[in-house]
Prior knowledge:
23% strand; Cell Division Protein Zipa, Chain: A; six-stranded antiparallel beta sheet; five-stranded antiparallel beta sheet
Amino acid sequence: xxELQLSLIALGVAGVAGVFAYNKWQExxxxxxxxxxxxxxxxxxxxxxxxxxxxxxTERSGEAxxxxxxxxAEVLPDATAPARxxxxxxxxxxxxxxxxxxxxxxxxxxxxxxxxxxxxxxQALGKMTRVPFWVGLDEATGxxxxxxxxxxxxxxxxxAALQLADRRGPxxxxxxxLFFNGMQRLADEFLAVADVPPRGASLARAxxxxxxxxxxxxxxxINVIAAGGVFSGTQLRGLAESFGxxxxxxxxxxxxxxxxxxxxxxxxxxxxxxxxDELKVLTTQGVxxxxxxxxxxxxxxxxxxxxxxxxQFAASLGGLLVDDNRSPLADSAxxxxxxxxxxxxxxxxxxxxxxxxxxxxxxxx
Length: 365
């Protein structure tokens, strides 16, 4: 056998040995990563006691009405359960909240570019109707940050969160399956380890959240109708703006708090929305003031302000303050509504989900 042949054989043996050693190194690396992820002693917040999320009953001036598809529900027990803080290595609650989100954690030995991740997750999760959101740990600052389509960072540790319920109802088994399957495909693509929570526990948690929110999802509507004739759009706009209300793209005037959040809205009683360029020619038989109770902190105070403004509109326009049946609203009926708003606020607070909190705004949307 020639020296050339011997050299080629030696090179071939060395190449095979190198590939085998590299594969063993990769195997050990990912085994250590998996052990580090799955051995963490984080509490499973999905199995915890605090409730929260999506919705059903509405109440207009004391008259309960049920949104289709959800039904009424009892308020969950364990009303004293405090809100738990996230583990030290988890994203802060204002970004991801395991009390209302199904959270999948990713860890990778290699940096995953945000742009690459965004494209990959669109392909992996494209069939989902509910859109999960992502946060990543900036290793330079030690802070978790929300990811968007234009994010440019790179991350080794990420969390994908799927909100378990909203006003459409709880997440379905089919939707959760799409989410989990997509997460596993992404983990395989990035050679990362995905810590996926149990499906059954996640579905149970979604149902609990939905049941709780169905018991507190109340909207209070107060109507001001024209006593004889109609209101003009010009009059309505002038009054609304004089009281600091702001016309927004949803076709309603919004009364805002100091932070710019909506306290209550003023809408047309008739189907047409308010539009800035059409108010000059608009006429209507009435307007509706609406308070979305779980989305407003200090709801009783917001209700008092709304009633005071409705009365001023009625006096200025020559209108009447009525309920949905166009019956005059007595002070005693308004006091009953006010007490109900206070009870809902206390119930939500006791469950670690204060009315008007970021979590409440997400769930009641």
